[in-house]
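$ ./design --mode recover --in tokens.txt
reading tokens...
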């Protein structure tokens, strides 16, 4: 039921999913990963990307190939998008050719405008505001490690960015406690905090703090991301001293649950937001996490295309 409700739908924000839809997607992702289900289609996915990508581009492409479909790489630099063709026009044209589109861009408004002009499912493959596809894979990885999600504590340490935003919403949907530790001027947007609090059940913690040690205490998952995201490269050096106290290192991980796992959406800057020892260490699950992008997005594609 929850999967059929996703047919034809957009995923622009993590909050576009209900609890039941998220649960069904995670179950489908596990079934696809194990090979219990092998749905097939003859559909075409377009990737309209205006930012660099390794994992999202390749995992979406391979997922679509494994479903029997085709992928068109519609990088902004090789289409009229890069020359300024309005998103409203691009959306109405691509809608006539494609069956589903994944968009990676800067402004969240752009994916929303695209979606409002296209009938086909539109998937947010990262904007400055959110990165929902990443969080599907993250939750799959946490569930693999602990067997379930509800009641676990995830602590995100670093910049209150797109990944932090979708994580907060995703954890709340999954019934997880979520703590976010950032420098004072880099907190998640108040709209996301309010949305997370509205989704979270009464007994679920939503903590936004400047204290990484407090946030890490007893956590089951420690998560970080780069201190300067794509589009913020000019601030990268000036951010380093501000974010240094928020580095995920052995000392911080030692405060977490002894069985805690460490996640990073990648790409990582070793010795900045995460030490080499931690990313290569026994708590790290970052390679499983990267692999799960493919399974989770295959589940999402199968659901929105209605082939499951
Ligand atoms: N985590 C992630 O989205 O990676 P890419 O930027 O390589 O797609
Ligand atoms: N916050 C990072 C995530 C990259 C996958 C960025 O937007 O660059």
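writing sequence...
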């Amino acid at each position: 039921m929850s999967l059929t409700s996703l047919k034809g739908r957009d995923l622009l924000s993590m909050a576009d999913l209900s609890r039941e839809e998220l649960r069904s997607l995670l179950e489908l992702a596990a079934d696809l990963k194990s090979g219990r289900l092998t749905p097939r289609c003859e559909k075409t996915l377009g990737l309209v990307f205006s930012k660099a990508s390794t994992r999202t581009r390749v995992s979406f492409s391979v997922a679509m190939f494994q479903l029997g479909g085709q992928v068109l790489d519609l990088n902004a630099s090789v289409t009229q998008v890069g020359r300024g063709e309005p998103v409203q026009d691009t959306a109405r044209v691509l809608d006539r050719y494609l069956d589903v589109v994944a968009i990676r861009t800067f402004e969240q408004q752009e994916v929303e405008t695209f979606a409002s002009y296209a009938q086909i499912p539109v998937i947010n493959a990262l904007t400055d505001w959110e990165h929902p596809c990443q969080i599907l894979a993250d939750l799959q990885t946490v569930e693999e490690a602990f067997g379930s999600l509800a009641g676990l504590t995830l602590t995100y340490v670093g910049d209150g960015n797109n990944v932090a935003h979708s994580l907060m919403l995703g954890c709340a949907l999954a019934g997880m406690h979520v703590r976010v530790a950032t420098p004072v001027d880099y907190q998640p947007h108040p709209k996301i905090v309010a949305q997370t609090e509205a989704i979270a059940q009464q007994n679920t913690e939503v903590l936004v703090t400047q204290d990484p040690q407090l946030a890490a205490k007893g956590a089951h998952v420690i998560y970080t991301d780069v201190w300067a995201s794509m589009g913020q490269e000019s601030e990268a050096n000036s951010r380093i001293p501000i974010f240094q106290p928020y580095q995920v290192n052995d000392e911080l991980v030692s405060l977490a649950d002894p069985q805690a796992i460490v996640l990073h959406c990648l790409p990582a800057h070793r010795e900045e937001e995460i030490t080499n020892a931690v990313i290569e260490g026994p708590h790290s699950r970052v390679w499983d996490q990267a692999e799960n992008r493919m399974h989770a997005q295959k589940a999402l594609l199968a659901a929105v295309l209605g082939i499951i």
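exit 0
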